[in-house]
Amino acid sequence: MRKGTAPSASPCERILEADPAELMVLFYDASLRLCRDAKQKIARQRCDDAHRLLVTAENVIRALSAAVRDDVFPDLADNVSRHSRFAFYSLLEANLSLNPCCIDRAVRVIAVLRDTWAEAVGAARRAVRRDRRSLDLSA
Question: pLDDT of 54-94, one tens digit each?
Fold first, then answer.
């Protein structure tokens, strides 16, 4: 979240105020929420609702994978692509079989991708702050 944004900001406000790196984290969070909700719908035998949630989660994962530029970080893009494909196909299998174990498999991978991305965003921010401080001291 950008400086000055209240932690209790609405989801729309958070999206509108987020930079591209933060958006990636927010969308990973959304896919995890969709998966959790789909599992609940499956448990309640609300298959149409579970299907809708899983399709949306699949689309989010595909979009996140496509957002990583392979011309800048080819190894990273390849790694994210492989993990994203695994999560996508696990969600697809869950959608066909209504098996919550398939969702759990996808969630484990999505959570690692999300946490890794969030850690990278944090590290980049710390580096920028450190560079700004060093520039201020040298002036």
Answer: 999 999 999 998 888 888 778 888 888 999 999 999 999 99
Q: Tell me, yes or no, whether 11 lies in a domain.
A: no
We report the CATH number of the domain holding residue 125 as 1.20.120.340
Give the chain's domain count: 1
7's CB contacts (< 8 A; 6+ apart) are 1
What is the C-alpha to C-alpha distance for residues 40 and 20, in angstroms, rounded to an integer? 30
In 3D space, the residue among 55, 64, 40 whose CA is nearest the CA of residue 92 turns out to be 55
Give the pair of three-digit tokens for residue 80: 């994210």
Where do the H-state alpha helices sit in the chain? 11-17, 20-43, 47-67, 74-97, 100-138
Range of the domain at 43: 22-138
Report the predicted TM-score, pTM, of the whole model to 2 decimal places: 0.81
Task: Look up residue 88 and give its amino acid.
Answer: F
d(CA 76, CA 67): 12
